Amino acid sequence: MNGLKPSTRAKIGVWVRTVLVNLVAIVMAIPLYYIIINSFKSSMDMAVSPFGLPGEWSFDNYVDAFANLPIARSFLNSIIVTGVAVFFQLFIGSLAAYGMILRKSWFTAGVGAVLMIAFCIPLQATLIPQYRIEASLGLVNTLQGLILLYLVNSIFCYFLIVGYMRKLPMEVIEAARIDGAGPFRIYYTIVLPMCTPILATVVVFQTLSTWNDFLQPNVFLSSTDNRTIILQVFNSMSQFTTNWPAFMTITVIALVPVFIFFIFCQKWIVSGLVAGSVKG
Amino acid sequence: MPSQAREPKSRHSSTEGTPWFKTRGFAESASSTGFLVPILAVFIVLTLIPLIQTVYYSFTDYTGLNPNVNFVGLANYNKVFTDPSLLVGLGFTVLFAVATTLITTVLAIPLAVLLNTKFYGRSFARSLFFFLGVPSLIVLGMVWSFILSPLKTGAVNTVLVNLGLDSVPWLSDSTLARVCVIFVAIWAAVGWHATLYLAYLQAIPADLYEQAAVDGATGLQKFVHITLPQLIPGIVVSTFLLITNGLKVYDLPFGMTKGGPGYSTNTITQAIIVHGISQSQYGLGSALAVLFTLSCLIIVLGQTLITSALSRRFA
């Protein structure tokens, strides 16, 4: 390559990278291809050629999946749990962040330290008593019980939001105060709108992690009607031990909303990834 | 909620002569406290009380079946370190955390560097690698259990047999199953962490590379002397996420193997759930949970120390 002009070398570099990276990307995507392609096959067809195109494209698996499983119900459960949980996480977290920036005292300093410690405690440490408490209150196998558990993530939301709120210009809050606005009104009409970028990031990030959660639905939900879509996919596996295409079909159905969400919110997932890097 | 409207004075005005509870300080303090009440309630109900109970259970023989609760000292902790099934789970969790952290980091940095250069299909490739980290790991794990099924009808085995090779017992052999679970974890995580590194790469000032080019630095020299040092904050963050998520792992091995064959891909979290909830051995499950929490806290502390040492060194 030494005899080549630098511009030619750069062009060759671009093509080498184009082939290399796209090749690796395509190889990495084979499992996604595998899921989609097999949802259109019969069991027989899938067993004979797992990676080949279907001999005959068939939508029977999709028809069967919607007929045999309460898919709409599971989606609804996931939407309710994720929507309500993320709303309250955001509300509690942003309220706490506002309380912290409003005033510095020994009390807020103490709360800050306590939340920092709480932030480092893994879910596993509290899981068994949480189960016992919810069982005694009749909250096991209810969506409310699951939502209640997810509120613990308000502490994570608080950490993301408070970092952003501390950088807000305090003069604006001070001016509103002089104009006679009460603390809650300042929070609602001034501070929250100014925090929109971080709130969007928190919503996108928490939506994804709540929607994808398997551990807590698996431990706390038992009846078919209460299952989230992820739990429904998991349970369908034992149902379809011999019918692999049926499992691939329900997987595709479960992944489509995640894929659409990803397409529209990729930007905020990245910012959440960078901002959420503090998560322990 | 007390209003401050009654005294529209400047912030530093004297409050002499007004009763203490009517001063702005009190009003602000009260409202500030009010805003913190919900999060404190969440903390007390969902973290503090359960945490105290976990520690308490871990020293008892509480099973839920027997109403009499007896203190048994460290017996549960003893059991953790003598039960082979738990030790295997502990060993696999540590192996998983360390292996995924090291290998993902080693692969994600060069991938991020590549994704940061010019080539055709760049935004497609970036999105695709990133997307693999987005779906739920239990679902991806189950899909991979079909791909790597040890049966002759498993996807990879079908290809091997068609090529005239023998089928491989991917998920039914202890060692192979572990390798496969770690491989899939890296497959899912590498693009996600490359995206994280990409954000840090894009923040490196271009003039550093221009100066190096003037000095005649080769590509490798630029990578070692500019890119890597500039990526240190990103490496700290990424490895921290990998190691803590690795220790907390549950979904992926459970989806792929349910912890098998035997206990070879069992994880601590799975053991806590099985013993502490499914089998109602609250004492044993809680002892596991306490040990697990302590090791997580030690890692957080160690990571904080390393981070501050590194930022002093490179600041």
TrEMBL record, chain A:
Keyword Transport assigned: yes
GO cellular component: plasma membrane
PROSITE patterns: ABC_TM1
Subcellular location: Cell membrane
Residue span(s) of domain ABC transmembrane type-1: 75-265
Membrane-topology annotation of the record: Multi-pass membrane protein
Pfam families hit by this protein: BPD_transp_1
Keywords assigned: Cell membrane, Membrane, Transmembrane, Transmembrane helix, Transport
Gene3D superfamilies hit by this protein: MetI-like
Gene Ontology BP terms: transmembrane transport
SUPFAM superfamilies linked: MetI-like
Transmembrane segments: 12-36, 75-98, 105-125, 145-165, 186-208, 244-264
UniProt xrefs under PANTHER family: ABC TRANSPORTER PERMEASE PROTEIN MG189-RELATED, ABC TRANSPORTER PERMEASE PROTEIN MG189-RELATED-RELATED
Family of the protein in this entry: Belongs to the binding-protein-dependent transport system permease family.
Protein name: ABC transporter permease
Organism, as annotated: Bifidobacterium oedipodis
Automatic annotation (TrEMBL), chain B:
Principal cellular location given in the protein's record: membrane
PROSITE patterns linked to this entry: ABC_TM1
Subcellular locations according to the entry: Cell membrane
Topology with respect to the bilayer: Multi-pass membrane protein
Keyword terms, alphabetized: Cell membrane, Membrane, Transmembrane, Transmembrane helix, Transport
GO CC annotation, single: plasma membrane
GO biological process, alphabetically ordered: transmembrane transport
Pfam families from the UniProt entry: BPD_transp_1 (PF00528)
Transmembrane segments: 34-59, 86-115, 127-147, 176-200, 231-250, 287-310
Domain called ABC transmembrane type-1: residue spans: 90-303
UniProt cross-references to Gene3D superfamilies, sorted A to Z: MetI-like
InterPro entries assigned to the protein according to its UniProt record, in alphabetical order: ABC_transporter_permease, MetI-like, MetI-like_sf
This protein's record includes keyword DNA-binding: no
Family, similarity comment: Belongs to the binding-protein-dependent transport system permease family.
PANTHER family according to UniProt: ABC TRANSPORTER PERMEASE PROTEIN, DIACETYLCHITOBIOSE UPTAKE SYSTEM PERMEASE PROTEIN NGCF
Protein name: ABC transporter, permease protein
